[in-house]
Amino acid sequence: MTNIIPFLTLLLGIVLGRLVNRAEERYKEKKRIRKFNPLIVEEKGIKRFFTWRGRDPIHLVEKDQQDRQLYTFFEPLCQSLRENSNMEPQFNLLKQINGEIVYELSSDFQSKWRLLGGYGGDPGDQILVLIKK
């Protein structure tokens, strides 16, 4: 019986340590999410989250995903950006970025991606940015 007490003590220490670590991770994640105040624009009943460096600490989002096409969603998004940023949205070539890049965020704020567009909602290779009016 005395041989099992050190083993149980060690096991209890490991379990408690894991629980404390998980609680700390959840707290840090909630604290990080509270720092964000993204622009929310709905598309077909689904909330989409958008931000830029002047609005949120975008550098805290570590996962960069592949750029995504906006297609015709660029119209309601650009209108919302004009109303909420006091800046003007435009598309720039990747080699000629002249403004704040607009990112879309995943709903858990763990990933971000740049937004691409072309003329009239067609697919394109230009990045959505915000410039001063």
Report on the structure:
Helices cover 32% and strands 31% of the residues. With 133 residues, it is of the alpha+beta class. It has 2 domains: 34 residues; 95 residues, no CATH class. Strands 1, 2, 3, 4, 5, 6, 7, 8 and 9 form a 9-stranded mixed β-sheet that branches. It is elongated and about 80 Å long. The mean pLDDT is 87.
Attribute tags:
133 residues, alpha+beta, 2 helices, 9 strands
Q: Tell me the β content.
A: 25-35%
Query: Which runs of at least 5 residues are low in confidence (pLDDT < 50)?
Result: none
Shape from CA axes? Answer: elongated
The total strand number stands at 9
Fold topology:
Elements: H1 4-34, E1 39-43, E2 46-51, E3 63-64, E4 68-69, H2 74-85, E5 87-93, E6 100-101, E7 103-105, E8 111-117, E9 126-132
Parallel strand pairs: 3-8, 4-8
Antiparallel strand pairs: 1-2, 2-7, 5-9, 6-9, 7-8, 8-9
Please give a quick description of this structure.
With 133 residues, the chain is an alpha+beta fold. Helix content is 32%, strand content 31%.
